[in-house]
Amino acid sequence: MSGIVVVGGGPAGAAAVGALRAGGYDGKVTLVSAEQQLPYERPELSKEYLLDPLRQSAAPIYEADWYRERNIDTVLGERITDIGLPDRTLVAESGVRLSYDQLILAPGARARRTPGLAGERVHYVREFTDAHRLREALAGAQHPIVLGGGFIGSEVAGVLAVLGKRVTVVERRHSLMERVLGPTMGGVLTDVHRANGADVRTGRVIVATETTRDSVVVRTDRETVEGDLLIVGGGAEPNVGLADAAGIAVRGGILVDGRARTSAPGVFAAGDAVSIRHGLYGRHLRAEHRDWAFEMGRIAGANAAGGHDEFTEVPWYWSDQYEHSIQMAGEIDPAGPTVLRGSMDDLSFTLFAVEDGRVRGAISMNRPRDILAVRKLVFAEHRVTDDELSDLHFDLRRVLRAPAAI
User: Does residue 371 sit in helix, strand or coil?
Assistant: First the structure.
């Protein structure tokens, strides 16, 4: 019996192998990763890892003993080039071949590369080796330039400011993280960065970039910025190549149903590369976040073991920048109508998206309890008024306990 192989060393892969054993599967389980490390916590790569010069590894999701105790084989440093449908034999770049009865694809996403933008002074942050290389380069850097003010760009810029670097952020939108936070909250975050010493230049269009042995130069439609290091925060792209080449349905991600099953029998998929049919939203969704990927991996593993679990995770994201915690839950159009709780001036507030008396989502800064409540409210029957949401003394848990209005 060939067993079940999981391809991918991120949180989805780790969750999948754990769920296989938790679901009672007693056959052979193999986890294959292109990286040399066991699955690790990626969110810290753009934050804590860069701040700690003594750290030499990322924090593992599970220690090596955890895999041994569950009789899970780990194959590290092997990049799969062909999933071998219909013969069910994986082929690695090194020539190694692995047969399987069922397959769980968890290939994750990769940093979006800018064509022609590479070299010793150019850095992307996605994997452990990226973060380690950047941290070493930062030791001798004085003026790093960050291209892009999304999640990664903003988090790295915050770390660089804390480290005392003269960091410049170049962003084409009018505020940091504007795509997800909207212009108002994005403007608040931009002000936070500037107050902490970051030189944030928004509304800039990059015309050209140049790198030499000693410097980097970024030319925008307004000015030229010179520095000694370049960090590119251009977002991520889902790794759908293996699935696409095998004829598995792909549309903006590897398509799976609510049980993480792909269009190929016996092949499941989970994680950042996957667009999953969400029964409670009634459509396919793809997200790039640790907990979303982990839960999807758990669903894939449980169902490959013979279960019938459905994916019902509430979209939830967080970003820690300086001493501030930014969280989002559910679905929210930050540029649309919202209800404010708290004070933007005090950097303690939540923006709720409400439709017909129901909370559909929220974005908060330094109000984690609000987001915890929203994660429970989104798919629960409830009714709440704008006045209740804006009232700092109103306990959102009361909405869950109260019977829904008819």
Answer: helix
Residue 178: is it exposed, middle or buried by C-beta count within 10 angstroms (0-12/13-18/19+)?
buried
Residue 156: strand, helix, or coil: helix
Are 340 and 386 in a shared domain? yes
Whichever domain contains 89, its CATH number is 3.50.50.60
Residue found by looking up tokens 């925060």 in the block: 233
CB atoms under 10 Å from CB of 57, counted, come to 11
CB neighbours of residue 342 within 10 Å:
18
pTM: 0.94
Distance CA 114, CA 262 (A): 31
Whole domain around residue 368: which residue ranges? 326-401
Indicate the SS3 state at residue 1: coil
Is the C-alpha dihedral spanning 321, 323, 325, 326 positive or negative? Answer: negative
Q: Which tokens belong to 207?
A: 């015309």
Residues near 151 by Cβ (< 8 Å), separated by ≥ 6? 46, 177, 180, 233, 319
Interval 64-94: pLDDT, tens: 999 999 999 999 999 999 999 999 999 999 9
